[in-house]
Specification:
Blueprint lengths: L1 H24 L6 H29 L9 H23 L4 H10 L1 H18 L3 H7 L1 H7 L2 H17 L4 H26 L2 H10 L1
């Protein structure tokens, strides 16, 4: 399992290595900032998809040990979200707070993306075992339902950004909808079970 976690960790770093290697070669295209922005945004959503897919996959494949990858994937989604946000405020806006605030308030796709990123902050901060103990399992799970909002905001951000070629954001929206539906089915099943069995199902979710 340790080797598998190392492998997943390395795989999650490959997109960053790809961006850095292209930047080093001067191969980021006519608009390097746009290339970096799109790449980091795409990988934020892709890794978020992988994170949310852990629970359905561990049930379908009967591999409960897959849960060990969920925190790592969630933190990598946040990591690429930070790179995406940093590219915007640094390379695009040069830390011009006035321009950033104006963008967030007046451009809907920026507003959606900013909201999705802000929703990821408490998830990353409280991802440790210590925070799970402090908040208690029930409150921690409620807080981490923000991941659904963050995923939806990310898809809306992407959809409003691309304007014409909406195939990818629509695909991500369908995948998220399927993952949310599976989770909803398991939640309903756990409520219909006896108390102990239902609690066990929720704890594995």
């Amino acid at each position: 399992m340790k080797l598998a976690k190392v492998a997943v960790f390395v795989l999650c770093l490959i997109p960053l290595a790809w961006i850095l290697s292209r930047a080093y070669r001067g191969d980021l295209g006519a608009n390097p900032i746009e290339t970096i922005t799109h790449a980091t945004g795409d990988w934020t959503i892709r890794i978020l998809v992988a994170t949310l897919a852990i629970t359905p996959l561990r049930r379908l494949l009967n591999r409960p040990q897959l849960i060990r990858f969920r925190r790592m994937l969630g933190l990598f989604a946040f990591f690429y979200g930070c790179l995406h946000f940093l590219t915007y405020i640094w390379l695009d806006k040069f830390f011009d707070l006035h321009e950033i605030v104006k963008d967030v308030s007046k451009r809907p796709f920026i507003t959606a993306g900013f909201a999705g990123f802000i929703a990821m902050l408490p998830l990353a901060v409280t991802s440790t075992a210590g925070w799970i103990r402090r908040l208690g399992g029930k409150r921690w799970r409620r807080l981490h339902q923000l991941v659904y909002f963050s995923a939806c905001a990310g898809v809306v951000h992407y959809y409003w950004l691309v304007k014409s070629d909406i195939r990818l954001p629509v695909l991500y929206a369908l995948i998220f909808a399927a993952l949310f539906s599976v989770r909803a089915v398991y939640a309903l099943r756990s409520r219909s079970m006896p108390p102990r069995a239902g609690a066990a199902v929720r704890n594995r979710a």
